[in-house]
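MODEL INPUT / OUTPUT PAIR
PAIR INDEX: 1
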Amino acid sequence: MNLLVPVDIWKVLQASEISILKKPLKSNISGMFLKKGFVKLVLINTSRTVGHQNFTGCHEYFHLLYDQDDKKICRAGEFDSNDSNEREADYFAAYFLAPDEALEFQVERRLKGKRRALNIADAIALEQMFGMSHQAMLIRLKEAGYIHAEEEEHMRSRVLTQALQLGYSPDLYLPSNENAIISNYAEKAKEALDKGLISQGRYEELLLEAGLEELVFGLTEREEERDETIPL
């Protein structure tokens, strides 16, 4: 483990041959995962903040590794869901982005040998380093024993303003609203289409067969409405 280089969940997913679909959605869901035969797919709602997207990528990675379900729409980062599997996915994501050893190393770098409590500036610096949402970073620090519940609550307000005052980019705290597909399968299909080896119809069929229906039709209204049925 390189303690100076944060985890890039998108490279981890690509290395695991997991297709990634990034798309802004009208609903407040975080994302979803889909397993269909040999194909694995995660959908990320890019209308959520970039920090939340990174967290969601790790959350969905847990589901693809350990979940028995073939498909699930998720609200990541709640940490107190009635669904134990969702709670496990949240804590997995928090520890995956900020492993114990790396978190300890970065905290010690911040403290520089001084015996003092962590403050909001420390939390913001750490979440910038690990690419995590502010909420996830605070919970991670509390779980590791660096802050107490009262300190966590106190550090929740005016995060973007304070990040800007400290000289950080606001990108982590804002939605990206990007549309992107990252998939070796889709790339190969597109290459075949561009070379004239397959027709447009066959190209779309391949995407459908791979479980990338969203590329052709978008996330359906019905699937977005299912968001309302997810237990909190």
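PAIR INDEX: 2
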Amino acid sequence: MVKRHLKRHASPKTWNVDRKGETFIVKPRSGGQTLENSMGISTILKKLGFCDTTREVKTALNSREILVNGRVVLDFKYSVGFMDVLAVPTKKLYYRISIDNKGNLSIVEIDAKDANLLPCRVKTMRLIQGGKLQLNCHNGRNILQEKRDFKPNDTVLVNLELGQIIQRIPLKEGVHVLVTKGKQAGHIGVFEKIERGAALIKIDGHEHMSPIKYLFIIGEKEPVVKLR
């Protein structure tokens, strides 16, 4: 049976929360991303200093002023994952969930323009009825496309207001990537080539090998969104 509660000392290291004090921490509901790559919206609002207690979190959410990826969230256990955007438009506050240089999830303040952009990594693809291509992304989002010039490991930039892809960034030599797992987690480097089934990337002038699935393309010459 899946446990509905979570003790602080057992929470993922990527959350970077205080493991002393209160015994339990809100366990987010299952979402499009793993527990290591996401946090409950309750935890995020507390880390930002917006709320001190879960009761305050519920009150804040019931105001319908807090959005995740452009949609109102009412569930205090809602899972907010890597690259997701949390916004409070009435206060002109916008944040993106990123990964810091220690491999932990971080909350980065961004502007309103950046908050309308959602980078998605294409994990798999399949043809569906009608001949359309379905892109299955890292965050559980499925995107239908008429064109078939997409490939796994591409990053697609979605305009949240339009609900459409506005840019495709393929995995090719010279693109900038963020390492999401492994020894180099949180570091930004430049992709060079695929060698023996792994990716060769250059970070701060040094070459490293990393599984391709650990790479998230963030831009061709510079990141398309703010990550630090």
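PAIR 2 NOTE: Residues 6-112 form a domain with the Structural Genomics Hypothetical 15.5 Kd Protein In mrcA-pckA Intergenic Region; Chain A fold (CATH 3.10.290.10).
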